[in-house]
Amino acid sequence: MTSLPRLPRPLRSLRSLWAGPVPGLPVEAHEVRTPRLLLRPYRATDAADWRRIEDDEEVRRGLDWPLRTSRQVAAHLLARTAHRTLSAPGDLLVLAVEHDGRVIGDVSLHLRTVAPETRIAEIGWLQLTAEGGHGYATEAARAMLDLAFGELGACLVTAVIERSNTSSARLALRLGFRLAGGTAQRATFVLAEADHAAECAAQPSRGAVETPPLGTKSVDNL
C-alpha cells in the first residue's frame, strides 16, 4: 500500500480543525517540579548549559548526533525552545531538566497518534554524563511519563534506543518498559498505562538513586 504524503504543519492544523477538537489536546509545555528537579521549556539563556550538553561525547554517541559548529549548536537550541505543544501527530514537546540552577539534560515527548483509544507518544531523554549515578534521569523521565499518561492521556508510550546505548536501555527497563523489538541498530521499548501505574505504586520514593536492573531485566542481549 502506498502511504499518503505527510502534510505540512499548517495544512495538518487545518485538517484538525475540520475534524473537530480531539479530547485531551493540545497539551502545552509548562513547569513540572519533582523532589530535586525543575522541568521547564528551554530558554535562549540556556546557551552555555546547552553547549556543555552538545560537547558531551557520550551524549552525542548515545543519540547519534554529529559534532556541531557553534552556529549549529545555537540553531539546535533555538529549535528546542520552539517545541512546546502536542496537538497533531509528529509534534514534539521538550522540557529542559534543571538541577541547582543548571540545565543537566532534557526529556521529550513525540506525539505519534492522537485517537484517545490508541494515543501513543514516544519519550526521549538525555543527560550530561557527569550527572549520572544520582537518579536524576529516572526522576525526570518518571515525571514526563506522568505527564504522558495523565495530561496527554496516552495509553502507550514507546522509547526507541540505539542498541549500543545500554545506559538508556537500563533506564527504560528501570521505568517499567518492556523490550518489544526493533532493528539491527535500534531497540524499541513499550510501556502501557497500567504498567506505569503499577511501577509508580511500587516506587514509594520517586527520587530514588538509580540502580542497575537485575535478573530478567538484563540488557545483555540487546
List keywords for this structure.
single chain, 222 residues, alpha+beta, 8-stranded mixed beta sheet, two-stranded antiparallel ribbon, 25% strand
Characterize the structure shown.
With 222 residues, the protein is α+β, with helices and mostly antiparallel strands. 32% of the residues lie in helices and 25% in strands. It has 7 helices and 10 strands. The chain has an 8-stranded mixed beta sheet, sandwiched between helices. A hairpin with a 2-residue loop joins strand 5 and strand 6. The chain is globular. Mean pLDDT is 88; it is low at 13-18 and 207-217.
In terms of topology, how is this protein built?
Elements: H1 9-19, E1 27-28, E2 32-33, E3 38-40, H2 47-54, H3 57-63, H4 70-82, E4 85-86, E5 92-99, E6 102-113, E7 120-127, H5 136-149, E8 156-162, H6 166-174, E9 178-182, E10 186-192, H7 193-201
Helix pairs in contact: 2-4
Count the strands? 10
For the record, give the distance between the C-alpha atoms at the N and C termini, rounded to a whole number.
Answer: 31 Å
Q: What general outline do the C-alpha atoms trace? A: globular
The parts where pLDDT drops under 50 for at least 5 residues are: 13-18, 207-217
Compute the average pLDDT.
88
Q: What letter string, H or E per element, gives the SSE order?
A: HEEEHHHEEEEHEHEEH
- Sheet with the most strands? 8 strands, mixed
How many helices does DSSP assign?
A: 7
How is the largest sheet built, in terms of strand order?
2-3-5-6-7-8-10-9
Helix content: 25-40%
Rounded Rg: 17 Å
Class by SSE composition: alpha+beta
Strand content: 25-35%
